[in-house]
Amino acid sequence: MSMGTEAPETERTLALLDELGVGYGCDVPIGPRTWYGVGGSAAVMAHPTGAEQLATLIERCAEAGIDSRVLGKGANLLVIEGTLGGVTIALDDPGFRVIDIDVNAERAIAGAGADLERLITSTVRAGLAGLEGLAGIPATVGGALRMNAGGAFGEIGPAVESVDVIEPDGRLHTLGRAALEFSYRRSNLCQRLICSATFALKRVEDQAALREKLKQVMAYKKGSQPMAASSAGCAFKNPKTQSEHGAGKLIDDAGLKGLRIGGAEVSTVHANFIVLHEGGTAADVLAVMNEVQRRVKDQTGITLQREVVVWEPDISQRTQSTQRTTE
Ligand SMILES: Cc1cc2nc3c(=O)[nH]c(=O)nc-3n(C[C@H](O)[C@H](O)[C@H](O)COP(=O)(O)OP(=O)(O)OC[C@H]3O[C@@H](n4cnc5c(N)ncnc54)[C@H](O)[C@@H]3O)c2cc1C
Question: What share of the chain is helix, strand, coil (3-state, %, to 5)?
Fold first, then answer.
């Protein structure tokens, strides 16, 4: 229940959540829930208990002009210090985290809040191939689908049979394979809220070989990326249309490996990762991203597009140190 001392927008948000019977918390730190482990808070974090309730929440937020956003595993997210208005939605109810595998039908159904790693290991253990190439990518199923997560061993898109989504106006429906579009780090799910997905997989005879493939993918990832460091994976998308080189190569060629601002640094292992050291802030990471974009543009004429999603509070809601760093 609201205590009645919040800002007007927050009061409206809390009144709506009370009316709909959606559970929530106030002033909830989000930074620690991201892979960077630092950053701002949500004025309100909601915990809907099912797709119908979530759809109503989205519909009513849209009508009332209340901003809404969904938090996944925070592995592709940078939350700048301060307080985010509107409502931040966590899909942590068990219904959103369900994983249901039908070996005979060669199919898996997963809630958007389910852990991708858990889905991969469960399907591989069941002898179903199709997702093992995504091993080592930290994500919820919803977060992975939204940006068609993938790498050297494939992307999530080809394994998808259908996705249950909520449109920005609150309409809940299913998109079948023909209505889905996946390309490099993109999908047509970006403006939609993903509730769950069905994956079409392939039953294999040689389960040991499938488990071995999983191990190989993991070993490759550990050997090529700073997996243990605090980061959000690749900071920038590979600019395929403008250059034959990946973003990491462009950053490396620009001599930016090791570039450091505050506690954030361009990784010396993989130039497209920006890692954060002890005591660093989300604003430091943003400052490094901006500097990398500026210098690569100066040297090559190519504008790198961010892969990492940045959530920035309104200026008035930022902490002082953040305002100093980003202005
Ligand atoms: C060490 C490391 C290695 C990585 N390696 C890879 C890699 O090899 N390949 C790769 O593709 N990525 C990689 N990443 C990035 C990250 O794993 C992916 O981008 C992943 O898909 C993020 O999912 P998430 O659940 O953490 O989303 P979050 O970071 O929580 O959110 C990212 C965006 O997705 C949105 N979102 C989350 N859930 C939903 C939903 N249900 N509906 C609609 N929108 C939603 C959020 O609102 C936000 O805009 C790596 C990250 C790290 C930290």
Answer: 35, 25, 40
Tell me how far apart the alpha carbons of residues 199 and 303 are, in angstroms, rounded to a whole number.
Answer: 35
Q: Whose C-alpha lies nearest to ligand 1, atom 6?
A: 137
pLDDT in tens, the chain (327 residues): 444 556 788 999 999 999 999 999 999 999 999 999 999 999 999 999 999 999 999 999 999 999 999 999 999 999 999 999 999 999 999 999 999 999 999 999 999 999 999 999 999 999 999 999 999 999 999 999 999 999 889 999 999 999 999 999 999 999 999 999 999 899 999 999 999 999 999 999 999 999 999 999 999 988 877 777 899 999 999 987 655 679 999 999 999 999 999 999 999 989 999 999 999 999 999 999 999 999 999 999 999 999 999 999 986 666 644 443 332
Q: Which of 67, 76, 117, 156 to mutate to test the pocket of ligand 1 (most atoms within 8 A of CB)?
A: 76
Atom of ligand 1 nearest to the CA of 195: 41
Residues with CB under 6 A from ligand 1: 35, 69-77, 91, 112, 137-140, 142-144, 146-147, 149-151, 193-194, 225, 227, 231-233, 309
Quick one: which atom of ligand 1 is closest to the CA of 69?
Answer: 47
The three-class DSSP label of residue 267 is coil
Q: Which domains are assigned to the chain?
A: 8-90 (3.30.43.10), 95-224 (3.30.465.10), 247-317 (3.90.78.10)
Atom of ligand 1 nearest to the CA of 227: 1
Question: Which of 137, 167, 185 to probe ligand 1 with, by most ligand atoms within 8 A of CB?
Answer: 137
3-state secondary structure 85-143: CCEEEECCCHHHCCEEEECCCCEEEEECCCEHHHHHHHHHHCCEECCHHHCCCCCEHHH
- Residue 114 main-chain phi, psi, to 5 deg: -70, 150
Distance 73 CA to ligand 1 centre (A): 7
